[in-house]
Design a protein that fits this description.
35 strands; mainly beta; 2 domains; elongated; 5 helices
């Protein structure tokens, strides 16, 4: 008897392929949509139809029976009934299950896919007369709200949390706690509303809406974590506690932050198109900040663009904008800051670059930003702490400073610690507020401090007076294509807030492309022949529905 080794190998390979195919089909079939209603559900139900929902989400301490015996798998969707409220006994959720691919949590992702786990909504399913978000509400000072319990702990990869209202957390602990903590990677939090926090006397003040961290020492590397299109609003609180995104995240974009101690405080790779206003002094003495980036969440690149930071004048000594402020020096760091609009600011720490260690922090490109200090007399320690021996290289072009310092003795980022660009053309434009207003640059504009209608290069100082920086945009495109596109266009002036639906909206400013080869304008805006204006927007109540 002879052995047909080639034939056996072929049959073996065919069998192996068939087994893999069957397993993949079984895995795909195993994913399920489960419906969860606090008002109408029971954990003894099947949970797979709207008429027989569970009462709880797996991972809730109150989850029992069929809910408790179910093991979530990649591709599962857990639909929370709109308008229902889960309370203290339901919260302190520990979610240990994971998807199997990051494709569900890439930027601008939408809805569940076969590879992630989705926890969110179907806006055709709700309690009451119209859809509202499902609510997680610990209720303030009662039950496990007073122990510093984090509402949701994500221990599994490739997870989406979508369109949930988070409220009623109570700070009565000396440790860290908050609404959502992400201890892994590729967790996406979006379209949600965070508010309604409170505290006891003597508690710590390091509470947060969202925190992504694998450890408690920098650099807090959590790849792929995203926080976007969320509202974090302390206007219904005592306005003296809570951070927006704490310790870090990979990408934070299209969010609206107000009345928090710090909007962003941690390590980030990409921060863009956020609006930050009215930071508050903490009841327990924590330092307040607008956007304070400790350094890259992972790798060596930082992208901070098209953000609006404003109305920080009541926050004495707070940091307005810091690029690389805490992780320690890294000569390989490459950071880009452009298109940001900063105004009505606390006049110290307006823009800082390095932290406090006497070493090389890398290379920074700071260009085409519009900045107005709170009292217009100081452009605000933009160099950071370079007197402590820090070194770095900065390329500083096309920024528009509204300040009484019309002719600084050095470039803003070029004191003793910086190796800076030079040349015969002054890289930035400095105008006092009176002169700027006289040319039509005003805080009252739809696009704050943008060129007014009728501007020419001879009547408006930003128009056509800058350096063409398309080479920067090309380099940025190699890091992130969306950021490269943003570099080639004027700023979008951040996001807005629908206070009825508590959703992020967009000002709809018309996009103006910057010239390919001709001179750019200075500042965040590129003049198009008319004052920047809003374009028509869709109704703000429209949102995507996940089936």
């Amino acid at each position: 008897m002879t052995w047909d080794k080639g034939g056996m190998m072929a049959r073996f390979l065919r069998a192996a392929i068939l087994i893999i195919f069957i397993l993949s089909v079984q895995s795909a079939l195993a994913s399920t949509t489960h419906y969860i209603s606090k008002s109408a559900g029971a954990d003894t139900n099947s949970g797979t139809t709207k008429t027989a929902p569970w009462a709880h989400l797996p991972g809730m301490p109150s989850c029992a029976s069929n809910c408790a015996s179910y093991t979530p798998v990649a591709g599962d969707s857990f639909i929370l009934k709109g308008g229902d409220t889960w309370v203290a006994s339901d919260l302190g959720i520990t979610f240990n299950w994971a998807g199997n691919s990051s494709s569900c949590a890439l930027p601008y992702g939408s809805g569940a896919t076969s590879s992630c786990i989705y926890i969110g909504v179907d806006q055709t399913w709700y309690t009451g007369s119209s859809w509202t978000r499902p609510i997680f509400n610990c209720g303030g000072s009662g039950s496990n709200c007073s122990t510093g319990t984090t509402y949701f702990t994500a221990n599994g990869l490739y997870l989406v949390l979508d369109n949930i209202e988070w409220t009623g957390i109570y700070d009565n602990t000396t440790g860290n706690a908050g609404y959502i903590v992400d201890y892994t990677q590729d967790v996406e939090v979006r379209n949600s509303y965070f508010h309604g926090w409170s505290h006891a006397g003597g508690a710590a003040d390091n509470f947060f809406a969202f925190s992504a961290t694998t450890c408690c020492t920098p650099p807090y590397s959590v790849v792929g974590s995203m926080f976007h299109d969320n509202v974090v609003d302390g206007s219904d609180t005592s306005k003296d506690m809570m951070n927006g995104v704490f310790l870090g995240a990979d990408q934070v974009y299209n969010n609206y932050f107000q009345y928090v101690v710090s909007a962003l405080l941690g390590s980030f790779n990409s921060i863009h198109d956020n609006l930050v206003q009215y930071p508050v002094i903490s009841f327990a003495g924590d330092h307040a900040n607008g956007i304070f980036n400790f350094g890259p969440q992972s790798g060596n690149h930082i992208l901070m663009y098209n953000n609006v930071v404003r109305h920080t004048t009541a926050c004495s000594g707070c940091v307005n904008f810091w690029l690389d402020g805490n992780n320690g020096p890294n000569p390989s760091t490459v950071a880009y800051m452009f298109g940001n609009v900063l105004y009505d600011l606390n006049p110290s720490n307006v823009i800082n670059i390095p932290a406090h260690t006497a070493s090389n922090y890398g290379t920074f490109y700071v260009f085409n930003n519009t900045v107005q200090g709170g009292n217009d007399s100081d452009y605000g320690a933009p160099v950071g702490q370079n007197s402590e021996g820090q070194t770095y290289t900065v390329y500083d072009y096309n920024n528009h400073w509204l300040t009484t310092i019309s002719s600084p003795s050095a470039f803003p980022f070029c004191n003793s610690g910086g190796t800076c660009n030079g040349g015969t053309q002054p890289p930035d434009l400095f105008q006092n507020l009176s002169a700027a207003n006289g040319q039509g640059y005003s805080e009252a504009e739809v696009a704050v401090f943008s060129p007014a209608s009728g501007c020419t290069s001879s009547t408006c100082a930003t128009v056509g007076s800058g350096v063409n920086l398309q080479s920067y945009c090309s380099a940025i495109s190699g890091i992130n294509a969306a950021a490269g596109t943003a570099c080639q266009n004027s700023a979008t002036d951040g996001v807005g807030y629908n206070t009825t639906t508590h959703t992020v909206i967009y000002p709809g400013l018309a996009t103006v492309a910057r010239p390919t080869s001709a001179a750019w304008d200075r500042g965040a805006y590129q003049y198009s022949g008319a004052q920047a204006a809003q374009t028509p927007q869709a109704p703000t109540s429209l949102q995507a529905t996940v089936q």
